[in-house]
Amino acid sequence: MEESIIYAKKYLEDLLSFFGLNTTVYATCEEEVIALSVPSTHMNGFLIGQRGETVRALQYLVSTALKNNNYECNRVNVDVADYKKNRLNRLAQNALPWIEKVKSTGQPMELQPMNPADRRMIHKVADEHRLTTESIGYGHDRHVIIKPAGSETAKPAKVEDAKPADQEAEESKPDSDEQES
Fold first, then answer.
1. Residues 49 and 83: beta-carbon distance below 8 Å
2. What is the CATH number of domain 86-166?
3. Mean pLDDT over all residues of the chain?
4. What is the three-state SS of 101-156?
5. Which long-range contacts (CB under 8 A, 24 or more apart) does 132-137 make?
6. Region 148-153 average pLDDT
7. pLDDT above 50: residue 173
8. For 135-143, which contacts have Cβ atoms below 8 Å and span 24 or more sequence positions?
9. Matching CATH topology for 2-81 and 86-166?
């Protein structure tokens, strides 16, 4: 396990150095997942990318490198300047009104498609509020249905305002380009 962590940390640091960023990556391991944290720098926007696409690509590269080199632990979570952590916290807060609506109406609610990390957060928050959840669909269309406890047959209402946290953040941000030269 320790060898996997050291390799992943070094691999990401080397990858970042290709972009001219010489920084120390902090690595921990929780529940068989290597967590790599890149501290805040002048390149945050570049490393995170639009809606987190670049940080997910970095995560994929590190995970693939671990797999290709036959390391025992190859599940990786890369976060830049706590972007993912903050985004999941926003999503958890955004989920509270959806949960309250399901509780008050007794009707299931079908959310918009989300990535796996967002769906896991919705499952966790709903479970904390004693509601059941189900992921349905495939690929980019996979989404969560929040249901009252014990509800199996009611048809879920589609909710147009139930957006993943990154879409809400994107829409609430002022239009500004932060490019470093």
1. no
2. 3.30.1370.50
3. 84
4. HHHHHCCCEECCCCCHHHHHHHHHHHHHCCCEEEEECCHHHCEEEEECCCCCCCCC
5. 137/113
6. 67
7. no
8. 137/113, 140/113, 141/113, 142/113, 142/114, 142/116, 143/110, 143/111, 143/112, 143/113, 143/114, 143/119
9. no
99 phi and psi angles, rounded to 5 deg: -65, -45
More confident residue, 170 or 44: 44
pLDDT exceeds cutoff 90 at 81 = yes
Distance, CA of 43 to chain centre: 20
CB distance 144 to 123 below 8 Å: yes
Cβ neighbors of 50 (< 8 A, separation 6 or more) are none
Q: Tell me the pTM.
A: 0.69
Domain chopping of the chain, boundaries: 2-81, 86-166
Q: Are 109 and 157 in contact (CB under 8 A)?
A: yes
Residues in the chain: 181
CA distances from 29 to 73, 86, 123, 155, 165 (A): 10, 19, 22, 40, 25
Report CA dihedral (108, 94, 51, 143) to the nearest 10 degrees.
-10
2-81, superfamily in CATH?
K homology (KH) domain (3.30.300.20)
Distances in Å between the Cα of 99 and the Cα atoms of 82, 125, 164 are 26, 9, 14
Range 83-108 average pLDDT: 91
